[in-house]
Amino acid sequence: MGRKTNQLKMKTNESLLIEYANTYNIKEFIETDPIQFPHHYQDKKDIEISAFISSWLAYGNRKAILKTLGDIHKKFDNEDYFSPYNYIKERGFERYKGDEKSLYRFYKNKDFYNLCQTLFTIYIEEENQSLEDKIEKQIKKENKSINPCLDVIDAIIHIFKEVEGIPINNTSACKRLCMLLRWLVRNDSIVDLGIWTILKPKDLIIPVDTHVHRQALRLGLTNSKQANMKTAIEITNNLKTIFPLDPTLADFSLFGYGVNNPK
After folding, report:
1. Alpha-carbon gap, residue 211 to 86, rounded angstroms
2. What are phi and psi of 209, to 5 degrees?
3. Is residue 67 helix, strand or coil?
4. What total of structural domains would you count in the chain?
5. Is residue 198 part of a domain?
6. Is residue 20 over pLDDT 60?
7. CA-based radius of gyration for the chain
8. Mean pLDDT (the chain, rounded)
9. Smallest Cα–Cα separation from 233: which of 143, 136, 147?
10. pLDDT band at 146 (very low <50, low <70, confident <90, very high)
């Protein structure tokens, strides 16, 4: 009897996750999410820069995140630069070098400078055609082949190692990097941008923060009390039973489950 009850519960949860994915993976989601900012651009470099900075800042209060990102993108789009790439190319960030004033929460203006300087090195000094191109080169250098998504995460960690807020290794959940990869790789042309082919959607790892971890525990997708990379991979593998070719579609499902089941 207990086994049948558990199977029924699992089937119910599966149906709910599919329903919530369809409910929240819609264009209207963009308007209230940091992904709205890279959606403003057409050029690959502009999208990459906007997406990286938007994901870098995406922690804490959503309203505060969107305000700070709005202010940054006004700098990108003003009449001196007109785009994120031109802002980087023309070194619009130079004024923030060594600036100890607060940018957002734990970040200071000098941290924004360091991130922009790294992007300047990638695009201008090294003449990479894209951030994706730079990551592919780094992966070939490291030749790890842990798994495709972790290889990309490790490459990003290495490239941006001098930037505050980038994880020092892949043992943490690397939530914002996993979210960045979801944005850039998922290609259903609804919410996510789908401009990178360095990974396939099936290789992505679910972005796990406190909220997602809580929902995953409630749904029996993990029993781990630690929101780390091992747990993120476990949750992702369990979600592949429902979304085998697109496990991070369930990021919308878990968001929806939290909205509809707040307690």
Report:
1. 36
2. -120, -170
3. helix
4. 1
5. no
6. yes
7. 19
8. 93
9. 147
10. confident
pLDDT at 11 over 60: no
Q: What is the pLDDT of residue 214?
A: 93
How many H helices and E strands in the chain? Answer: 11, 2
Within a domain: residue 124? yes
Task: For residue 24, tell me if it sits in a domain.
Answer: no
Q: Are 53 and 69 in contact (CB under 8 A)?
A: yes
Largest CA distance in the chain: 69
Work out the end-to-end distance of the chain between its first and last CA atoms, rounded to an integer number of angstroms.
27
Q: Which residue range is the domain that position 166 belongs to?
A: 43-171
Own/partner contacts of 67-71, CB < 8 Å, gap of 24 or more, are 68/103, 68/104, 69/34, 69/37, 70/37
pLDDT tens digits along 174-233: 999 999 999 999 999 999 999 999 999 999 999 999 999 999 999 999 999 999 999 999
> What distance in Å separates the CA atoms of residue 239 and residue 141, rounded to the nearest whole number?
32
Q: What is the 3-state secondary structure (H, E, C) of 233-255?
A: HHHHHHHCCCCCCCHHHHHHHHH
